[in-house]
C-alpha cells in the first residue's frame, strides 16, 4: 500500500484541475487550494519513504534552476509596491516548485511507466473536451450553424476558452505519442477518436495561439517523418504514419467546415489571417511588450516585485484603459518575469526551459531508432506548445497549464532515466 502512495499522489496531481469548484467566483484559487492539499499529501509520503534525489547534475539541473529562481522571486518581494500581492504570487509559485521537487524526490519518473503517465494525460484531455464541447452539441448545433461569437460558450473546466485551447493543443502531441506507443488496436481506435475530437475542439475554440501551435506541431512532425522516409526508404511505414494522421486532421476539418456559418470569423483561414500587427489583440500585446521592456531599460536594477506588474501597468497604460479593463499581465511570462524579478530572475527562469530543451535535444540526437526519436520529438512538441502560450499569454499563473508543464517535465525525466538505464545496462 505504501509503495502505491506516490502513484496516487501523481494521479491526484494530474487530475487536480477536475476538483469541484462549488460555484466559487475564483476558479484559480480553488485550483491552487487543491494543489496545495495534494502537495502536503506528497510531502507526507516523502517523509514516510525517505527518498533521495539522483546525484546526476544534468538530471537535477532544471530543479536547481527553478529553486534558484524561487529564491530570487522571494528577494524581489522587498521591491514590491504591494507586498501582499507579491506574497500571494510567491505562494502560487512555491506550490508548483514543491510539486516538481516531489516528482524528483518520489521518483515518479521511475515508478510510473510512460504509458501510465500518458493514460492520465488522456483521461484529463477527454474530460476537458467533454466540458468544452457539451454546449456545442447540446445547445448550438441542434438549432443553428456555429459562429465565432459562440466560442465563449465552449470555455471548459477553467471557464476560459484560451486556457482550454492551450491545454488541449499541448496534449495533442502526447496523445499522438500514446497512440504510436500502444500495441492495443482497441486503444488505438479510442486514442484516434480522442485526437479527432481534440483537433475539432481546437478549431471550434478559434484560439489563434492554439491554431498556431497545432500547425507548427504538425509541420515539425511531417518534416521529421518525411526526412526519415528519405533516409530509410520505408514506403509502407511512411504511408501509415503520414496518412493516418492526415485522415484524423481531415475528418476534424471537414466536420468543422460543415458546421460553421459561411464566411464567419470562426473559419481557420479568417483566424490565421488575423494574426498581424494591425489586429487589435496583437496591437494590444505589442503595446504591453513595449511597456514592459521600456520599464526594464529605464530601471534595470529596480524590479517591480513578483506579481506587482499589474499595479505598475495601470499608470503606464492609463491612456488606453476603458471602463474597468486594465492590463493585468504582460501577456508574456518571460517579459513579466524580467520586470518583476530582474535580469537574474529572467535568466534563471529562461535557463530552466533551455535546460529542458537541451535534455530533449540530447535524447533526440543520441537515438538511432526512428520510433523512439519520434516519441522524444512529440514530448518536445508538447513543451513547445507551452512555450508558445508562455510568449503570448500567461500560463505561469494558470494552474491547469502548470499541471500540464509538470506532466511534460515528468515525461522528459522518464525518457532521460530510461536512456540512462539502457546506457548503463
Secondary-structure map:
Elements: H1 5-14, H2 27-49, H3 57-76, H4 83-105, H5 108-111, H6 114-140, H7 161-181, H8 185-205, H9 208-232, H10 235-259, H11 268-273, H12 280-298, H13 309-316, H14 333-366, H15 370-392, H16 399-424
Q: What is the 3D shape?
A: globular
CA-based gyration radius: 22 Å
- Helical content stands at over 70%
Largest sheet, in brief, is:
none
Order of helices and strands: HHHHHHHHHHHHHHHH
Give me the count of strands: 0
Terminus-to-terminus distance: 30 Å
Q: How many domains, as an integer?
A: 1
| Poorly predicted tracts of residues | none
Mean pLDDT: 91
User: How much beta, percentage-wise?
Assistant: under 5%
Structural class: mainly alpha
Number of helices: 16
Write a concise keyword list for the protein shown above:
16 helices; mainly alpha; 425 residues; 74% helix; globular
Report on this model:
The protein has one domain (2-278, 326-424). The protein is built from 16 helices and no strands. The mean pLDDT is 91. The protein is mainly α and 425 residues long.
Question: In brief, what are we looking at here?
Answer:
The chain is an all-alpha fold and 425 residues long.
